[in-house]
Amino acid sequence: MPTIKRVLLISFISILLLLFGIAITFIMLGRSFLVIEEKINPSEAIIVLSGDDGRLEYGADLYEPGQRVILTNATEPNTTRSLAIELGIQADDIVEENEATSTYTNATLSRDIMNEQQLSSAIVVTSNYHTRRTRMTFNKIYESTDIDLSYAVAPSSFSTTGSMTRYEHRIAFSEYAKLTGYWLRLFLF
Fold first, then answer.
1. Which of 50, 103, 121, 149 has the smallest number of CB atoms closer than 10 Å to its CB?
2. Which helix (H) or strand (E) holds 150?
3. Separation between Cα atoms, residue 92 and residue 73, nearest integer Å
4. 106: part of which helix (H) or strand (E)?
5. Rounded to whole angstroms, what are the CA distances from 121 to 51, 83, 166, 186?
6. pTM of the predicted model, to two decimals?
7. Are residues 60 and 97 in the same domain?
8. pLDDT below 50 — which residues of the chain?
9. What is the pLDDT of residues 35-63, one digit of tens each?
10. Is residue 100 helix, strand or coil?
């Protein structure tokens, strides 16, 4: 029977190996790996993820009257109903989701709304550094549906070229760590 010291040592070594793996992946793939830009398809809905400035503004730029605009975690200051209306989105087209606390719950709760409203396609709006994790998560959560998703990259201060700022180092390392955690959760557990 393993001793507590042995279990703690194995746990500590495992965590160190995981962090080392994330660091090596970041060094090898760089920050551009995090960004996925693709063609935006016409859709019945726009799902705006909370969490960063510029996402709602970009969603409003893509918006056409009659499209549903799902505001995930609409309690955050940068994804409120009032701001959406200020940006030109019609009040009747706004659907607020107020419970999401992560990209994973953004995906599950928006999927439920899409199903309830019988919508068959959506554009998911997020920041450039967040697109790989968003796409992986939403594609996995939506895989059992017939809902077509495309992904729009909102303007962000995160750059994939030139020397990295302290902000970009922090964001990139954080995204690689989260990407690893999400991959483990979505595909292994």
1. 121
2. strand 148-154
3. 18
4. helix 103-116
5. 22, 24, 37, 22
6. 0.85
7. yes
8. none
9. 999 899 999 999 999 988 899 999 999 99
10. coil
